[in-house]
Amino acid sequence: MDKLFFNCNMFDGTTATLTENAWFVVDEAGRISNQGTGKYPDVADRTDLQGKFVMPGLINAHTHIMMNPITNKTEYLTEAEATVQALHNLELLLKSGQTYVRDCGCAFNVDIQLANFYREGRVFDFKMPEIMPSGRPLSMTGGHGDFTEGHDGCTTWGYLTDSPDEVRKAVRQAFKLGAQNIKVMATGGIMSATDQVDDTELSLEELKMAVAEAHSKHMTVAAHAEGRAGIHNAILAGVDSIEHGSYLSDEDIAAMKEQGTFLVTTLIAAWTIPEYGEGKLPQYMLDKAKAFINDYFENIGKAIRAGVKIAFGTDAGTPFNRFEEAPYELQLLVENGATNFQALQAAGKFSSELLGIEADYGTLEPGKFADFLVLDADPLADVKAVQQKDKQVYKKGQRMF
Q1: Which residue among 45, 85, 112, 182 is the one 20 to 30 A from 17 at the CA level?
Q2: Which residues lie closer than 8 Å to 81 by C-beta, 6 or more apart?
Q3: Which one, of 167, 189, 157, 396, lies nearest residue 289 by Cα?
Q4: CATH classification (class only), 58-355
Q5: Tens of pLDDT along 90-142?
Q6: How far is CA 19 from CA 38, 58, 218, 330, in A?
């Protein structure tokens, strides 16, 4: 049965304008079948949105659903622990307005399994967004992905790959299991004790192999890349997105714009560590974060002003980076050079393009799924409107919260 939603101010995600006194119809499949302003069609099932503001659901292109941002436990996790944590986090993501997420590295391939359950309608009573899974990330031995997992230390978080041949095999294994994106660790990171942020990890040849193998199977490649040399290698290799981009050079900003490489900013992940971690986190994490955060934010601002395609991602699950606080990333984007419209498009249109789901998600247009939020205030005037705790969240026309 069709559903009519009327009496709202709509931001459809395509232009920096609101459509006043808007209405739209959602069909049985959960897609928008018709929309307009003023006089609306005679549909029996109707919802008066009382003049509130409607916008597309947020698409978070960088999450870690297996992680607990408060305990910060990263090693010796069991598969059961990772699964239970993921189900809890997925509900938090959806309630805060994130209707589609990409997981960027999950032990035991829990994200792949849950994504399959969702597609098969086997999530029981759990409320969750749709998931684009990456499964286990690819890391060099001792790199930013070599975390010991399992109660008895039986495995590692990532596939440990130390040659192009090992990379090829890992990508094929991920493909076999159902990954839709390949996460590669091009540099060191904040949370790994054995390396520095600017360490170059997977080599250029290994990154090129990951890209060639993934692209031949219609998968995307996301590169964790913080140090300058590793970022440069990842761009040369042809990855689809640079995750973080802390030490982006002017040269690589220009190359990303020319190639159409996306930048997934994750500003909130850097902000939370010094903000909340003093006395609670290992000193190496605090030292790394404090040493690079100013350069990081400055470089992201340069990329935004240069016109690099920005996608929305938070790295949720990292220390004190709560899943429900993801809308704060929009505020940080604006504070570092984006307009309200650019920040909102990063979380909708551009994230959908990065994930390859733009035919169905990202904007509120006829033919696309009706994933939308209902807010009390105008997000185009102030993106902090999306931080509303009691916002209405709809997934395919069904109210979830």
Answers
A1: 45
A2: none
A3: 189
A4: alpha beta
A5: 999 999 999 999 999 999 999 999 999 998 888 778 899 999 999 999 999 99
A6: 10, 19, 36, 22
